Amino acid sequence: MPTVVHIQTGQGVGTGVIVDSSGLVVTNAHVVGTSKTVQVRLQDGRTVTGTVQRTNVPVDLAGVRLPLTGVPASKLAAPTDLQVGQPLIAIGYPFDLDGDPTVTRGVFSA
Questions:
Q1: Number of domains composing the chain
Q2: What is the pLDDT along the chain (110 residues), one digit of tens a residue?
Q3: Is the dihedral of CA 83, 30, 20, 103 positive or negative?
Q4: 97 inside domain
């Protein structure tokens, strides 16, 4: 949970995950859209301005750099470690609901 962040742009909101303690966040390209900067709220309540560094629309991924270091980072598994049918948990901020992030259960399909 400490690595899940709320992202807000002029077009909408979404979720990201801190993947490096130097402040790199991965999110969806559709979340950042054409924005160059986004507002990022961390689990500790801080809100900072992140800079969109790169987007890849065909795979719907974007990288956002936070002006922070030493932040908690998620450990990412190798894709080869996932098995089709394996249960997953998704944590995030869909639809800009108030409060803490929601938790959804699912299954890895491919």
A1: 1
A2: 889 999 999 888 999 999 999 999 999 999 999 999 999 999 999 999 999 999 999 999 999 999 999 999 998 878 888 889 999 888 888 777 777 788 889 998 87
A3: negative
A4: no
3-class SS of residue 58? helix
CA distance 27 to 17: 7
Q: Are 25 and 54 in contact (CB under 8 A)?
A: no
Residue 108 domain flag: no
Q: Which amino acid is at 46?
A: R
**DSSP alpha helix (H) spans, 9-110:** 29-32
What's the pTM value of the predicted model, to 2 decimals?
A: 0.85
